[in-house]
Amino acid sequence: MLLSLELFVMLVLANGSPVVVARLLHQTGNRPVDGGRVWRDGRPVLGPSKTWRGLVAGTVSCLLFSAWVGLGWLFGALFGLLALLGDLVSSFIKRRMGLASSARALWLDQLPEALLPMAMAWLWLSLPLWEAVAVALLFALSNMLFSPVLYRLGIRKQPH
């Protein structure tokens, strides 16, 4: 049970750290991962909110937490990177669907960033499959529930 809680915290860190760092640093280091490029459909590849700063912040926060709780820095770095890769995949799909960076896409906004790292945790840690899926679903549901609260508190720019 403790392991599931630690993995849940890592999902929160991977996805929350970029938001916190963006609020603290404003425009400093705000370089888009896609370099501002557009896809062949004329839409941005990912959009301006997916930055290298966020990728580093989420990965490093997971690395540090994972090392601290004894899961190892390499596991943490890969876990964080996979969570953020899932977020990039989600953004890519949303752009192809014609949705803006801030547009809401229920489940698409939450599941890829949870399922990719949890699949790695399932394989790496021999976590029961039901537990890996449960942590991913819990993260997705809590994200849907708490994002509006974080928006009202001025932490998030969008309520979703």
TrEMBL record:
It comes from the Bacteria. Pfam families: CarS-like. The keyword Membrane applies. The keyword Membrane applies. Coiled coil: none annotated. Keywords: Membrane, Transmembrane, Transmembrane helix. The chain crosses the membrane at residues 55-85, 132-151. This is CDP-diglyceride synthetase.
